[in-house]
# Entry
Amino acid sequence: MNNKVLDYNYASNEIKGYSNSSIAKKEKNDCFVRAIAAATGSKYDSAHEFVKETFKREEGKGTQFTDLIMTELEDKGFTLDGKEFKVKVLPKSRVTNSYKLYGDIVHRQKTVKSFMKDNPEGTFIVGVSKHAFTVKDGLLIDNAGEEFRPTRKVQSVFQIFGDNNTNQLRLF
# Structure
């Protein structure tokens, strides 16, 4: 890991096959497709097909019901570009901060900056209002035009474990 927390890169630079994809050239509202591709290290076209099939995403439209479907994938995992992946839906306690305010404990959604500082290692798909992106070992990977906005509120987070991004010790 050579990234400093809060480093930023464009998804188009990180995703395999993105610049050559005829599908990507005519797509819009594909932030979740890009987030899946960046988090798994898969090709854009493969991620596009996976999101279309698994999440029933329609061409040119955003992805719906990500929390519900990712919860289902938490039990069975998924395969993309021949690699196996596991999903962990982070609980509310990992995406909220607690503050003491006038003697009461108040829970508020973490900002993107706060989430990244608390999670400098690992691969995450982060959902904010009507948008998704990847955070991979402290590097925020997002679309051009969505430059880093550290105060956006985190709504959901899915940690991705797999062939290229597992934190487990392997023997042999």
Notes: The radius of gyration is 16 Å. Residues 44-55 form the longest helix (12 residues). Residues 7-162 form one domain. Residues 164-172 have pLDDT under 50 and may be disordered.
